[in-house]
Amino acid sequence: MLDPTRAAPSAFAVHLGEKPNHSSANGTKIAVQNVDFFYGEKHALKDVAIDIFEREVTAFIGPSGCGKTTLLRCLNRSYETIPGAYMTGTIRLDGHDIHDPELDLPLLRRRFGWVAQRPNPFPWSVHTNVAYGAWLHGLTHDAADTDALVEHCLRQVGLWDEVKDALDQPGTELSGGQQQRLCIARALAYAPDILLMDEPASALDPGATALLENLIDELRRRYTIIIVTHNMQQAARLAQRVAMFHLGRLVETGDAVDIFLRPRHEITAAFLEGRFG
Ligand SMILES: Nc1ncnc2c1ncn2[C@@H]1O[C@H](COP(=O)(O)OP(=O)(O)OP(=O)(O)O)[C@@H](O)[C@H]1O
Ligand SMILES: [Mg+2]
Fold this sequence. Notes:
By secondary structure, this protein is α/β, with parallel strands linked by helices. It is 35% helix and 24% strand. The strands form 2 sheets. Strands 6-7-8-3-9-10 form a 6-stranded mixed beta sheet, sandwiched between helices. Strands 2-1-4-5 form a 4-stranded antiparallel beta sheet, covered by helices on one side. The longest helix is centred in the middle third of the chain and has 14 residues, at 143-156. Residues 1-8 have low confidence and may be disordered. Adenosine-5'-triphosphate (ATP) binds at residues 39, 42, 44, 64-70, 82.
């Protein structure tokens, strides 16, 4: 354990100082209890318990291979497509067990938007990229309805003015940063309440990253967001809560201010100072 009064790395303090602490105001969206996860023989998560609060950004941090992506896969049950993968323990979403056999799995998955490390628009037009999910889930009824939703989602991600005259162009022909925002618009179109973002800025340049960070900060007012990032400055800028993982275990979790300025565990302090990972 560290001395709680120990000096913080000043680079984090600069960002954290600008940010109010929201966590006490918000309720638990997802409760993870006693979760162990296995890829066949590989024990990837060990006794993980964490509450994810609604309308906040929670950053998952930790060295490569510590289980961050695996926990995201548990939350929307997407791990079930991986042969031999299984979990034990309980995950509740709004108080309901996500493994309840009565639960409608497609509906559960729809409540999560997934934003991947590399932008991965469908090889279709900008318009179809956004419209497809809503159409698939029967959320739009006619062309006017669909156009309005596409515009709404593209406006939400700050892309409308950039693409409104190019809605028929392939989504894959946008810049990397635009493609990533298009992928977020695509997720928003099927009305999720949680966004899972796995290193969403790792393929973006600094300008596109700044735009994406502003967007994430805006979206958290309406969505519960979990972001995996290897960029500690980014975690400090964006997150209200932080969860530090190491070797499949959750080392500690808490308000971003506390984790960055007063980490309780030597492993967290070492990771934040770049001494390993
Ligand atoms: N499909 C898979 N099959 C078998 N093992 C896997 C699979 N995916 C991940 N693992 C293993 O599970 C562990 C956790 O992996 P995970 O991808 O969750 O780590 P991570 O924290 O997201 O790492 P990174 O920061 O590199 O993305 C690692 O040891 C990894 O090798
Ligand atoms: Mg990962």
